[in-house]
Design goal:
Elements (H helix, E strand, L loop, with lengths): L7 H7 L4 H14 L6 H8 L9 H16 L12 H10 L15 H5 L25 H6 L4 H12 L12 E5 L7 H8 L5 E7 L4 E6 L2 H14 L1 E3 L2 E7 L53
Antiparallel strand pairs: 1-3, 1-5, 2-3, 4-5
Helix pairs in contact: 2-4, 3-5, 3-8
Amino acid sequence: MSLTKADPNKQQWEDASEAFLELTYRSADLSTTVHCVPLAAWHHALDVKSEAPTADINRQYYAQNMANKVEEGANVYDTSKISPANHETLKKLARTEPYYKRNRPHICSFFVKGECNRGDECPYRHEAPGEGDVGQQNIKNRYYGTNDPVAKKMLSRVKGNSLAPPEDKSVTSLFVTGVEEDIQEADIRGFFYAFGEIKSTVIIHRSKCAFVNFATRISAELAAEKVSDTGLTLNGHALRVTWGRPRPQGPKSDAKQRPASTGVMQPPAPPTMNAADESDRYPSQDPTLQGSSTKV
């Protein structure tokens, strides 16, 4: 046994006499590099069709033969099918944070039928199952990577992220996220200048984002279409691109657009105290009406 600082279980598997144990660890180690992507989605993204049998005994025999080929130096995997576009698809499917909902208890089948009598003491979840194929998935299909609704949902979500242009024709800017410190304005302009004239470029490294403002809408649509097909990677960093949002319209301050009158009669202005015409005075300003009189 060689001295390494790796996992002791890994070291035992590598030095094991059974060849299929070594291949089993390699398969498990490979699964951790795809960031919890379902097997069906992984096969579809890399255009790989599994030829392994489904029976346990046959799978062990198949793994042993594959391990022998690896020891002989044979090329078991066809790496020619792994294109940069496939890698970008896997990056979009990858989960960068732990998925804690995986450890939740199962849904109580008696609660779904309305027959659970345990109440709060029931160790299972009391909630309705999810709608659609995802709520009716089979763990066997998930394990073998066949007819997996979760993988189909993830793949459809990636395909649906196609940077569809907004209806507002005034939007000519693209919003870029994931901009690291080593990505400068020249790097962003070097990629987007081929699609048309760039009016301005704003980079905010503190927020890891950037704005690319094109002079015309056609240039912005061409750039969005290219990014949607091939993705955007600058200096080894995969960036995410979305359409910018239209600027909010503020309150109109033009007085000409305000209505001249509301159609309601306004009360007359009060008369002045020094008015020459006595008829313009209010009744309260007449002292004779208040019961007072002057003596001669």
